[in-house]
Design goal:
Elements (H helix, E strand, L loop, with lengths): L6 E3 L4 E3 L4 E3 L6 E8 L15 H10 L4 E3 L5 E3 L2 E6 L5 E6 L13 H12 L17 H6 L2 E2 L2 E2 L7 E5 L2 E5 L7 H4 L10 H7 L15 E7 L3 E6 L13 E5 L4 H9 L5 E3 L6 H8 L4 E14 L9 H9 L3 H8 L5 E2 L23 H14 L10 E7 L2 H15 L4 E7 L1 H9 L6 E7 L6 H4 L17 H12 L3 H17 L3 E13 L3 E2 L15 E2 L1
Parallel strand pairs: 4-15, 4-16, 19-20, 19-21
Antiparallel strand pairs: 1-4, 2-3, 5-6, 7-8, 8-12, 9-10, 11-12, 13-14, 14-15, 16-22, 17-21, 17-22, 18-22, 23-24
Length: about 550
């Protein structure tokens, strides 16, 4: 446990990131350090291969895209100081900041974005989040190897072009109203071509990495800590108040709560939700935050094998879950029961809920038993042995334990198992077999497509349950081609209706982000995207 005070005197010059970044500290200067409880250890810090929030928190501090989220979740200029859009809504032209530089002093150029986007869409890179850039012209065809006019497209056909070092042109497949918000996502971050070519997969290691964000990596000790220091070449460095970030990756919420109370952590992502009232009494309500975001907490079923290849079984297990109990007893009301995959709050969209949402819970259980009997399971039928997988977290364990009891009540024999967050998601993304598994999704941009595209059959990374429905896929394809906003939202609603009727997954709760935030920290604000860049934070 690190008891080093937040502000201390730096006594010597420190060499950071090899020869690329040197920060000089003198006895007359005080180094301001913030300690962030990150909620988990990242699988990687390579933006082409990250996919969960605990990775995004770190990577967004170290790299900056064309746009970024401000403390309130509003998209504002990042590396791009301005942009224009053609009349047909297809061509964006971005003007990059003259002052934008990498930590080694190299200017950030349009070519850095061209290289990064081509790398994301290259089939050989196998980037997990490549699909988020599919609105760019030819991105999907290149990434999936789809032939156009009888031949596969070269990576150079991707609709990104450097007009000059500080002017980037991006051409889209179709008008995309959320594209500027999408560019704040970590899949759209630039990467240093020269470092990747020199170090290969080791380019993200301390001493090799080159960053263009407000901070850059100096230490990465798995399961212990990650350290990043202020980038002296960052274009807005004069307004960056924190000198160093130390991320604590512990998933033990009780431990990080105690560390926060002791002043050893200034921010903590995720606390034990059922301890909210106790924590408020102990720490004060101003330091215990829970706010709704555009996020879903759900369970997925492996539809590739029995029993969950049968929609009746998926429906039965979903109906048997008492969402009100989970919300009130485990999450103390910080999360709300969910009966649709797309959470409420997206302008112009009406979510498609399951048809049995208004049934009493006891009636749901009776119906669940009937469905299992019809499918040949349960009493007098084939046995149901179900294993629930979840990522290590006190709240998720309590949810899994409660759901196990609910499923036992409809005749299943249930076990639970957990893995650390990076192993849990890696297992599912790699296609490992399972019965039921916990998952969560926070919107990358405020559009229902960002949730529903997870269920497209070709989305092998995030369609964890491997559910397939041709009509659903057709509707999603049509939504990408529809330019009328109202008609597009109706198409997406119809697609979600199919997914809910087929019980492609079991939505459980509308997620709320929970944070412990020291009252000494300024600049932290709740926002639907749950984005909190350290560059906007300071101490009183």
């Amino acid at each position: 446990m690190n008891n080093t005070p937040r502000v201390f005197r730096a006594l010597s010059a420190t060499l950071i990131a090899g020869s690329m970044l040197a920060v000089l500290a003198t006895p007359s200067l005080a180094e301001v350090v913030i300690r962030r409880g990150n909620g988990g250890d990242p699988q990687t810090l390579d933006q082409a291969h990250i996919s969960i929030d605990v990775e995004g928190f770190i990577v967004r501090d170290m790299f900056e895209g064309l746009t970024i989220f401000d403390p309130h979740g509003k998209v504002i200029p990042g590396v791009a100081e301005s942009w224009t859009l053609s009349d047909d809504g297809l061509v964006y032209t971005f003007k990059l900041r003259e002052a934008a530089k990498w930590t080694d002093g190299t200017p950030v150029t349009a070519d850095d974005f061209v290289f990064a986007y081509r790398r994301m869409e290259s089939p050989s890179e196998a980037a997990e989040y490549a699909n988020i850039l599919y609105p760019i012209k030819n991105a999907e065809a290149i990434n999936t190897g789809k032939e156009v006019d009888g031949k596969k497209l070269p990576i150079e056909a991707l609709g990104v072009k450097a007009i000059d070092p500080k002017t980037l042109e991006i051409t889209l497949e179709r008008p995309t109203p959320y594209f500027i918000e999408l560019l704040a996502h970590y899949s759209a971050l630039p990467v240093p071509k020269w470092a990747i070519e020199k170090f290969g997969g080791d380019w993200i290691k301390p001493g090799n990495i080159v960053c263009n964000g407000a901070y850059c990596l100096t230490e990465n000790v798995p399961n212990d800590h990650i350290t990043a220091v202020k980038n002296p070449n960052y274009w807005d460095v004069a307004n960056v108040k924190i000198d160093k970030i130390i991320y604590n990756p512990s998933e033990d919420q009780a431990t990080t709560e105690r560390m926060f109370e002791a002043g050893e952590l200034d921010l903590v992502y995720n606390f034990q939700a059922d301890q909210k009232k106790f924590l408020e009494e102990k720490l004060g309500k101003d330091q215990v935050l829970a706010f709704s975001d555009l996020a879903s907490y759900y369970y997925v079923f492996d539809s590739r094998k029995p029993p969950f290849d049968d929609a009746r079984v998926r429906q039965a297990f979903s109906m048997a879950v008492d969402r009100e109990f989970l919300s009130e007893k485990i999450y103390s009301g910080t999360q709300m029961p969910a009966y649709s995959f797309v959470p409420p709050g997206i302008p112009g969209y009406e979510a498609a809920t399951v048809t049995w949402a208004d049934m009493d819970q006891l009636d749901r259980e009776d119906k669940a038993k009937e469905l299992l009997k019809e499918a040949g399971y349960g009493e007098g039928g084939k046995p149901l042995k179900i294993d629930i997988r979840f990522n290590t977290n006190d709240n998720h364990k309590k949810v899994a334990t409660a759901i196990a009891d609910m499923w036992k009540a409809i005749g299943a024999e249930v076990t639970i198992q957990n893995l650390d967050i990076k192993s849990h998601y890696a297992y599912m993304q790699e296609g490992g077999a399972f019965d039921a598994a916990r998952a969560g999704w926070t919107a990358d941009y405020a559009d229902p497509e960002n949730f529903l595209n997870l269920l497209i059959s070709t989305n092998t990374t995030f369609n964890y349950g491997h559910w397939k429905n041709e009509k659903f896929d057709e509707l999603m394809k049509a939504s990408y081609e529809e330019r009328d906003p109202a008609k597009r939202m109706q198409i997406l609603h119809d697609a979600e209706r199919i997914a809910m009727d087929e019980h492609a997954l079991a939505p459980l709760m509308v997620h709320a982000s929970t944070w412990l935030v020291s009252n000494k920290v300024q600049g932290f604000a709740p926002n639907p995207q749950n984005e909190h860049l350290t560059k906007f934070l300071s101490f009183k």
